[in-house]
Amino acid sequence: MKDNNLLEIKDLTIHYITNDGTVRAVENMNLEIGKGETLGLVGETGAGKTTTALGIMQLVPDPPGKIVGGEIIFEGENLIGKSHAELRRIRGNKISMIFQDPMTSLNPVMTVGDQIAEVIKLHQKSNAKDALEKAKEMLTRVGIPAERSKEYPHQFSGGMRQRVVIAIALACNPTLLIADEPTTALDVTIQAQVLDLMKKLKDEYKTSMIMITHDLGIVAEVCDKVAIMYAGNVIEYTDKNRLFKDPKHPYTIGLFNSIPDIEEDEDRLKPIKGLMPDPTDLPSGCPFHPRCDKATAICAEKAPQNTEIEPGHFVKCLLFEA
After folding, report:
1. Which residues contact 139 (CB under 8 A, 6 or more apart)?
2. CB-facing half-sphere around the CA of 224: CA atoms within 13 A
3. What are φ and ψ of residue 74, in 5° steps?
4. Alpha helices in the chain (DSSP H)
5. Helix, strand, or coil (residue 7)
6. How many Cβ atoms sit within 10 Å of the Cβ of residue 179?
């Protein structure tokens, strides 16, 4: 493991075994994130982004989910195989997660102050009074008046609830924050406020972050590095500037082509043809070949390897294999 890396995922494979077949949600995935970095995990619905996050948290629902192989090295230790007690000490304390819908991740019958205090009591061995004071402080940090700590989730708007969830996630000053599409349920103005807040708090707490999204605008705003996912695999990984200036994988190029360009006068967008493959029946060879304009006969037979085309820029595509 490189000295600067906080998290390294090696050959991670996660399957969901169902009556209709095996869903290959994540296949031989490799990824790394450095200390203090923000990594954007980008892909269409069903690409395996949330499953990857649940894998890191060791929260893949079992059954039907199963981590079939690979390693998740966090701070030099493999999280796979750790006991429930060890994982409880890590979750919420060292690794925190912000889920998509704040309403489903908050307890409707507990005040927001008590919910933040609960995490602090659990991980920092504080007494109830000190934990509640820290909870009020965390609410103030995310822009909510401390006196609202006695209120319940239903008394807050969507954007305010998401701020409460961020306060819970950051209450124990974690080293890694996983944000699973944290702005999906919010309108655009509130989205911008929540993203600004997350960026500010991340810098303040020197936290590394994985931002799961399908919105390249959010990536441009927040991330340092980007991993593009397709059919359970990272197919391109590099820093943000290089990806936006010079994308290499045909799928990544297709994603950029399908975004409207304010400088171009175009009548129609250029969508990527076809649909994401069925994860219970992935195509042979390269999983993207049925939708790829550059595919040749070999693409249907041979699975591409992870190729470093320039320092720090990895692509899984046969076009780049020598």
Report:
1. 112, 113, 116, 145, 146, 148, 149, 164, 167
2. 14
3. -120, 125
4. 49-57, 84-90, 102-105, 112-124, 128-141, 158-170, 188-205, 216-222, 240-245, 250-257
5. strand
6. 28
| H or E segment to which residue 70 belongs | strand 65-74
With a threshold of 0.70, does the pTM exceed it?
yes
Provide the residue type at 248 as one letter: K
Mean pLDDT of the chain: 89
Q: Report helix, strand or coil for 143.
A: coil
The pair of structure tokens assigned to 244 is 């936006």
pLDDT at residue 210 greater than cutoff 70: yes
Q: 158-170 and 128-141 helices cross at what angle (nearest 10)?
A: 130
Interval 278-296 mean pLDDT: 90
Does residue 1 surpass a pLDDT of 60? no
Starting at the edge strand found earlier in the chain, the sheet holding 233-239 runs: 95-98, 176-180, 208-213, 38-42, 225-230, 233-239, 313-316, 306-310
CA distance 219 to 58: 25
Instruction: Check whether 102 has a pLDDT greater than 80.
Output: no
Contact in structure between 175 and 5 (CB atoms under 8 Å):
no
Bridge partners of 315? 236, 307
Q: Dump pLDDT digits (tens) for 225-282.
A: 999 999 999 999 999 999 999 999 999 999 988 887 777 777 777 888 888 888 888 8
**Both tokens assigned to 155:** 């008394």
Q: Report which of 93, 84, 42 is spatially closest to residue 226, judged by C-alpha positions.
A: 42
Distance CA 137, CA 149 (A): 10
pLDDT at 179 exceeding the cut of 70: yes
Strand partners for 133: none
Gap between the Cα atoms of 253 and 272, Å rounded: 9
Question: Residue 91 carries which DSSP code?
Answer: B
Using CB atoms within 10 A of its CB, is residue 309 exposed (0-12), middle (13-18) or buried (19+)? Answer: middle
pLDDT higher at 28 or 265: 28
